[in-house]
Design a protein that fits this description.
With 113 residues, the protein is mainly alpha-helical. The chain contains 4 helices and no strands.
């Protein structure tokens, strides 16, 4: 099934990029790994749910929440970069993708204003 929304396609690409990295988390950071991976997939699920909503006000509110989740996701990427789990180059690739997603999301929000 092909998605028509650019933001969803870009986000799916981000998830694939992250999934292709062979990141090794020390045991004491497993909870960070789980949190990161859960939020990655929860955000994608949220995008699909938002896209299916008909109430513009509810869509707007949930999109705003999604912006916060994207910013939090970047914080998690920064954290694993500082812990040297994620290389600077890998972080840069993820950051550029997140920045594109953020811009698309802002445009998507403006539709419901």
């Amino acid at each position: 099934m092909k998605d028509n929304l650019i933001v969803i396609n870009k986000y799916k690409m981000l998830v694939e990029i992250y999934s292709n990295y062979s990141l090794v988390f020390p045991k004491k950071y497993y909870s960070l790994k789980d949190r990161l991976e859960n939020i990655l997939f929860d955000n994608l699920k949220e995008m699909y749910i938002i896209n299916s909503l008909t109430d513009k006000n509810l869509r707007y509110i949930r999109k705003e929440e999604l912006v916060g989740n994207i910013k939090y996701l970047n914080y998690l990427f920064v954290s694993i970069n500082k812990l040297n789990i994620l290389s600077d180059k890998q972080y840069k690739v993820l950051y550029i993708s997140l920045e594109e997603i953020y811009k698309c999301l802002i445009g998507w929000i403006k539709i419901d204003k």
